[in-house]
């Protein structure tokens, strides 16, 4: 059977505040698990703590309470264990495409030449052939995201966390990138957690969607399964049941943004 | 590129105009011990070339070089330390800033008392003047490194050393070079001031000695040389900067 690669068990977290009075929990008693090879999207209102979940998974933050399990084992030192693609592309402007991509391998201590030849084999797949010596400032938005994704893949981890990777792209590029991402996901057999604001994007890409519902004093996560077979096409989203699902999701999200 | 050329053309033609006005004015005024003409100065430079180039220039350049190298080493070390430790930052940063309000020129005679007419009294003056721009700009550069990139590196499993060399150093380089450019021009001033106060050789010393002999052109000749050294150093650093920061164009 498929195994759990990531589990949150009763995780509570809040950022330390200067005066210890207003300990407004960002996440409280969160439980979820993600299976090997799954594509899971996380949606939720702005500020609901989506990026914070990623910070917890990567080990940049530690839960105040509860456990985080990676590949079935409780892990406290998670830094370097999962691939993280941050909200901005965050390429180093002084490094070429090649040198940016090679970074995680460099940190793992791989020899430069070996690391480079490793990257060279992947350039074509990522649509980066011929620009390996270009600087990030010379690339288009979609290309930068592909470099950033390549760098994330090269972390070597089986779990990839992608934080709104396509939110800065125009609609057409975004669609191409979504299809491309699904291809890559299938090819690399990774488990992907994907944050997005865009309900359509979540519906199109995911096996399951986690909706973060923030109702004071509790935060809860609702799971929604997507009843679509793969491979999918964008047209599938206009099926009756998908349209209904979309409306339900938007309803769930909207109830949080009461003004 | 074209724009650059254009601005050089403008500034050099302005300098030429100034020189012509000076030449004419000084000839009319006709007191060369107070105001020598540019051509007088050039002549003097030619006349004194061997003593200036082989005795005084090396003396001044070695003062500048030792002072600058000391500032670079100690300045970078202090900047890195302040970036590492909040305690070091809180201790030294205010002192470094306040120290700039002390007129080094006024202190310089003390250094002569302490170090005599040896090269060290001048090196100390040069060091004190150039230390500030290097330390502060390097520190500001280090401090400006991106928190998000640092966190990204951490999620890749980076060590402190990785973060320093792969993130902090490249981030600080542009700022370091700006500081260094200021410092090399200051070093000319530092060395000259140091030599005025007491020296047995050096361009500043030579210029001052000629002042007491009312030899206007000989006062200016070493100064021309000094400023040429400054320009040369500046161009050297700019060239180095271009090579190190290719990505910025
Ligand atoms: N380093 C931090 N220190 C203190 N508070 C923080 C920190 N980072 C985020 N927060 C707060 O935690 C809350 C959740 O932030 P988070 O970034 O996880 O939201 P998000 O769901 O990713 O929002 P968005 O959709 O805008 O990216 C916000 O209210 C934010 O102000
Ligand atoms: Mg976020």
Task: Kindly list the characteristics that best describe this protein.
heterodimer, A: 259 residues, alpha/beta, Rossmann fold, 2 domains, 6-stranded mixed β-sheet, 4-stranded antiparallel β-sheet, 8 helices, B: 249 residues, 85% helix, globular, binds adenosine-5'-triphosphate, binds magnesium ion
Give a written overview of the molecule:
The complex is a heterodimer of chains A (259) and B (249). With 259 residues, chain A is α/β, with parallel strands linked by helices. Chain A has two domains: 4-82 and 158-255, P-loop containing nucleotide triphosphate hydrolases (Rossmann fold), CATH 3.40.50.300; 90-156, no CATH class. Chain A is 32% helix and 24% strand. Chain A has helices at 50-58, 97-101, 103-107, 112-123, 141-153, 171-188, 199-205, 240-254; strands at residues 4-13, 27-35, 39-43, 65-70, 73-74, 83-85, 159-163, 191-195, 208-215, 218-225. The model of chain A has no long low-confidence stretch (mean pLDDT 89). Chain B has 249 residues and is mainly alpha-helical. Chain B is 85% helix and 0% strand. The model of chain B has no long low-confidence stretch (mean pLDDT 91). Classes of the chains: A alpha/beta (259), B mainly alpha (249). The A-B interface holds A 58-60, 79-82, 84, 86, 88, 90, 92-95, 103-104, 106-108, 135, 137, 155 and B 146, 148-149, 151-158, 162, 166-167, 170, 245, 247-248. The complex binds adenosine-5'-triphosphate and magnesium ion. The site of adenosine-5'-triphosphate (ATP) has 10 residues of chain A, from helix 1. Adenosine-5'-triphosphate binds at residues 15, 26, 44, 46-52 of chain A.
């Amino acid at each position: 059977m498929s195994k759990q690669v990531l589990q949150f068990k009763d995780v509570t977290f809040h950022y330390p505040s200067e005066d210890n009075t207003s300990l407004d929990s960002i996440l409280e008693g969160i439980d979820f698990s993600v299976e090997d090879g799954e594509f899971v999207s996380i949606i939720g209102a702005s500020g609901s703590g989506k990026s914070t979940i990623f910070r917890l998974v990567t080990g940049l933050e530690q839960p105040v309470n509860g456990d985080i399990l990676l590949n079935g084992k409780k892990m406290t030192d998670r830094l370097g264990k999962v691939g993280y693609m941050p909200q901005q592309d965050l390429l180093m402007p002084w490094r070429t495409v090649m040198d940016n991509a090679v970074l995680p391998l460099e940190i793992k201590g791989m020899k430069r030449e070996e690391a480079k030849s490793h990257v060279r084999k992947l350039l074509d797949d990522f649509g980066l052939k011929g620009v390996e010596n270009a600087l990030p400032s010379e690339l288009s938005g979609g290309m930068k995201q592909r470099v950033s994704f390549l760098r994330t893949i090269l972390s070597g981890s089986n779990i990839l966390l992608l934080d709104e990777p396509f939110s800065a792209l125009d609609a057409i590029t975004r669609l191409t990138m979504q299809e491309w991402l699904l291809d890559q996901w299938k090819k690399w057999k990774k488990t992907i957690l994907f944050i997005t604001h865009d309900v359509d994007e979540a519906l199109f890409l995911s096996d399951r969607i986690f909706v973060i519902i923030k109702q004071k004093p509790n935060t809860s996560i609702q799971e929604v399964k997507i009843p679509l077979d793969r491979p999918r096409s964008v047209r599938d989203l206009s099926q009756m049941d998908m349209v209904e699902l979309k409306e339900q999701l938007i309803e769930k999200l909207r109830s949080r943004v009461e003004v | 590129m074209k724009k650059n050329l254009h601005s050089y053309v403008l500034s050099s033609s302005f300098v030429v105009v100034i020189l012509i006005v000076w030449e004419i004015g000084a000839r009319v005024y006709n007191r060369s011990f107070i105001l020598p003409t540019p051509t007088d100065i050039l002549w003097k430079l030619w006349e004194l070339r061997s003593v200036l180039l082989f005795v005084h220039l090396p003396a001044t350049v070695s003062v500048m070089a030792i002072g600058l190298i000391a500032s670079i080493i100690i300045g970078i070390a202090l900047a890195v330390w302040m970036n590492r430790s909040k305690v070091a930052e809180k201790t030294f940063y205010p002192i470094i800033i306040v120290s700039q309000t002390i007129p080094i020129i006024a202190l310089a005679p003390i250094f002569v008392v302490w170090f005599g007419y040896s090269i060290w009294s001048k090196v100390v003056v040069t060091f004190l003047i150039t230390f500030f721009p290097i330390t502060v700009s390097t520190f500001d550069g280090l401090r400006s490194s991106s928190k998000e990139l640092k966190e990204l590196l951490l999620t890749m499993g980076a060590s402190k050393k990785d973060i320093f060399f792969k993130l902090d150093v490249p981030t600080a380089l542009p700022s370091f070079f700006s500081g260094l450019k200021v410092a090399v021009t200051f070093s000319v001033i530092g060395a000259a001031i140091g030599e005025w106060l007491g020296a047995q050789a050096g361009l500043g010393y030579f210029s001052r000695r000629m002042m007491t002999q009312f030899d206007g052109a000989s006062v200016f000749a070493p100064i021309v040389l000094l400023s040429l050294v400054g320009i040369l150093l500046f161009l050297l650093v700019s060239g180095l900067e271009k090579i190190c920061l290719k990505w910025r164009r």
